[in-house]
Amino acid sequence: MKMTKPKDSAPGRWLSYRPEIKVLDCTIRDGGLMNNHQFDDQIVKVVYDTCVAAGVDYMELGYRASRKGIKAGEHGCWKYCLEDDLRRIVGDNKTNLKLTVMADAERCDYREDILPKKDSVLDVIRVATYINQIPTALDMVKDAHDKGYETTVNLMAVSVVPERELDEGLEMLAASEARAIYVVDSFGALYSERVQYLVKKYLLHCKASGKDVGVHMHNNMQLAFANTIEGIILGANFLDATMAGLGRGAGNCPMELLLAFLHNPKYKLRPVLDCVQNHIEPLRAKLLWGYDLPYLLTGMLNQHPRTAIKFKEAELKGERGDILRFHDAVTDQE
């Protein structure tokens, strides 16, 4: 059945949809931060098949990271996403789903580790960078673009970037070959007013150079979905989400919520519900992602969630945590 484009797909409309919107699943990549990227092939294949069935636009399979000096077995294969591992899951990927990996600035030997597009099943390289690493990130984007890939940039920890540096950084990124630049709430610290301000600022820089804006939100304060909606309303077209919100610490915007919200009939919710119920939720007792009090506190304080993650890891080992003691420690009230 042929779908017709809505007559009015402007940002902020509730009863139509924007065909420009692209949904990216980062379950395996972001979720891998909770288990050292040691997902078995069955889970990765299930998420891949779900993305295909649900009409998701992109799937991020993991990281492309340097293998120099690594300890054998320290990380699973989705930390490195070698071509043989990717093809073991997706074959030649003869589907409409585009495949991507994330490469962290200064943590990837990108000139050697990222193959020419003709030799890879990947379609997109997502470069993640802190504000001080932008010169390296720009070189990574150009390298991947010249090799034939679509590229995007995730500017991390934006909630702690000084205004002048952010403006200068966005000016540099807007002049790059990247297709989209992401507002990333690394610490789960953003409220809607700040999301509005940042998305508008990114759009100001990106639209002149024909780029899109993306949003990648974390759920420390139960706002990942709400802040993603905020980005959509303002005009962000690239949206990150994960199955059941699986991701580092408090997790991400849940894919099932996002697809239930979007009105584009190309997206199918039922395959995602199947994946969540039968494959992702059974992992929760072991991986312990999702909203919890220690993540609330680090988000509220605009802090990296590493201390909250350690608190939760101790619980996995049977150590009972004291949230009041944790509160006093992170707020310096001891």
Characteristics of this structure?
eight-stranded parallel beta barrel; TIM Barrel; alpha/beta; globular; 14 helices; single chain; 334 residues
Overall average pLDDT: 94
Spell the H/E element sequence.
Answer: EHHEHEHEHEHEHEHEHHHHHH
Order of strands across the widest beta sheet? Answer: 1-2-3-4-5-6-7-8
The CATH architecture designation of the largest domain is Alpha-Beta Barrel
Count of runs of 4 or more consecutive helical residues? 14
Q: Which CATH class of the largest domain? A: Alpha Beta
Q: How many domain modules? A: 2
Number of strands: 8
Shape: globular
Structural class, judged by helices and strands?
A: alpha/beta
User: Beta fraction of the residues?
Assistant: 5-15%
Please provide a brief summary of the model:
The protein is an alpha/beta fold. Helix content is 40%, strand content 13%.
In words, what does this structure look like?
This protein folds into 2 domains: 265 residues, Aldolase class I (TIM Barrel, Alpha-Beta Barrel), CATH 3.20.20.70; 38 residues, no CATH class. Helix content is 40%, strand content 13%. It has 14 helices and 8 strands. Strands 1-2-3-4-5-6-7-8 form an 8-stranded parallel barrel, surrounded by 4 helices. Helix 7 links the parallel strand 6 and strand 7. The protein starts with 21 loop residues before the first strand and ends with a helix.
